[in-house]
Design a protein that fits this description.
Elements lengths: L7 E4 L5 H12 L3 E4 L4 H13 L3 E4 L7 H14 L5 E4 L19 H29 L2 E8 L11 H21 L4 E8 L14 H5 L10 H12 L10 E4 L7
Parallel strand pairs: 1-2, 1-4, 2-3, 4-5, 5-6, 6-7
Helix pairs in contact: 1-7, 3-4, 4-5
């Protein structure tokens, strides 16, 4: 069950953290994986690690926010390797390196765009690049990595990030309905608190916040990767337009 042999997956933002975990698990289940990252060296490092473990992987660096770069990169990959059957829209962040939680009232309007660029328009750019091919073949899986901040109000200064992630969730729902009759499923994952050490960052406040998680620990990349493998598999073909809460029980729905 949950095998991906004969499928090709593109995972954006897969050079570290959750994205790397997703790419590695998909390869382990048999998919050929295009490892995308804005930093070419990170993408190649993860792809090499997958190959060393016996999987099939290719580095595919590009910036998902650069609409003019995404489609040509995907088309070149598909010509050389294989059409993309599975897209995992994982690339995203809090707006920029060094982001500080800020209430909306205190935010600078000049900062608003960057949250949408990566967390919403990046999703749209990558999806548009693979969608025509999926429709032509009448098969596709689109999985958007979102956040609990996109499904609930939080008093921790992430309103701009939450708005962009909420937009990505809404986009994915509409995509699912528009293309359900063409063999394409589209689902989102509202990710809870992930251990920042998986991306080489300091644990900081998240360790204390983890105490409030019912299962008693922070999430790991493989927690999200396993969900993606299931949603990409044949066994999940009747699941579309849904938002999966993968968060250790905080909150429950």
């Amino acid at each position: 069950m949950f095998e991906l042999h004969g499928r090709t997956a593109l995972v954006t933002g897969a050079g570290q953290g959750v994205g790397a975990g997703i790419a590695e698990l998909m390869a382990r289940q048999g998919a050929a994986v295009a490892v995308n990252d804005i930093v070419a060296e990170r993408a190649e490092e993860v792809a090499a690690r997958i190959r060393e473990a016996g999987g099939s992987a290719y580095a595919l660096p590009f910036d998902v926010t650069d609409q003019g770069a995404v489609a040509p990169a995907v088309r070149a990959f598909e010509r050389m390797v294989a059409p993309v059957d599975i897209l995992v829209n994982n690339a995203g962040n809090g707006g920029a390196e060094g982001f500080r939680p800020t209430r909306f009232r205190d935010s600078d309007p000049a900062d608003w765009q960057r949250f949408a660029d990566i967390n919403l328009f990046g999703v749209m750019n990558a999806t548009r690049a693979v969608l025509d091919g999926m429709c032509a073949r009448r098969h596709g899986r689109v999985i958007t990595i979102a956040s609990g901040a996109g499904t609930q109000g939080l008093n921790i200064g992430v309103s701009l990030y939450g708005a962009a992630k909420g937009g990505a969730i809404a986009f994915t729902r509409h995509l699912a309905v528009e293309h359900a009759r063409e063999g394409i499923t589209a689902n989102s994952i509202a990710v809870g608190l992930i251990d920042p050490a998986s991306s080489g960052r300091q644990a900081s406040a998240t360790v204390a916040m983890a105490k409030a998680i019912p299962v008693g620990r922070l999430g790991k990349p493989e927690d999200i990767g396993a969900t993606c493998v299931f949603l990409a598999s044949r066994e999940a073909e009747w699941i579309t337009g849904q938002t999966w809460q993968v968060n250790g029980g905080a909150p429950t729905t």
